[in-house]
Write the structure tokens for this entry.
Amino acid sequence: MHVSVVIPVYNEEETLPFLKKAVDEALKEVDFSWQAILVNDGSKDKSWDLMREIATNDPIHYKSILLRRNFGQTAAIAAGIDHADGDVIVLMDADLQNDPLDIPMLVDKINEGYDVVSGWRYNRQDNVLRKLPSHLANGLISWVTGVHLHDYGCTLKAYRREVLTGFRLYGEMHRFIPVYANTVGARLLEVRVNHHARKFGKANYGLERTFKVILDLFTVKFLNQYSNKPIYLFGGTGIVMMLISLAALFYLFVRRVFFEISILGSPIFQMSTMVFILGFQSILMGLIAELLVRTYHESQNKRTYTIREIVDGNES
């Protein structure tokens, strides 16, 4: 087995020497080959000079990639995955809050048959202003997606390569990879991992990241549940709106017949008419989305299913 450790880097010149030492120490006696992919996400300090030196001095175990500008953590992770050749891909942060000593344990769990092993910072060493929004976000994501994890924000995770194929990462989507993997039937496991206080620099993300995650959650929910049958969302919404509109019109009709109250003079008439039209348009949008989904799958010969194993009795 070959393991690729993908590590996005942003302004970590003080941490990088300690990071390399920690990774080397953690993986020096493992029974698998490995390479760490360091991805510089447009750092403004001397991180790239150190990364180039690390990869030059130890090309067997290190590869360094420099992005043209700061694209964000998700894009850096995507670049690392694209340039990794491991059977197992491990993601971790560069600030040493994740502990490289946990990597062999994650890989062992993959060897036990799991497809995704997600770290849980059980004893998280951050202040309450970072832990509270993260706790709320984890609960919301678990509730919306149905994939229950204690710590979506923990970067330290291990994946079989095959569960990372078939989709691209955008926005803050890297934290939702377990959700994507779950849609193709991946076996998920969450394990407790070590977490350390940050020794150098400062965190590159504030509370605004929570709002970005919530917005990305809408996309994940749609792609997870309705990407193959968008008519269920658009058509269902349209039918509900049309039924509400018809109920309001029936109410106006009853008032007109029994109480002789004008229909056209009520604002309910205009509102119900508008809601009916919007409902009809929503159904049409669902039909158009269905055409787009079919074009997407058929033009790329994409399957609407994934296969874990085939046994046909011909194996010797």
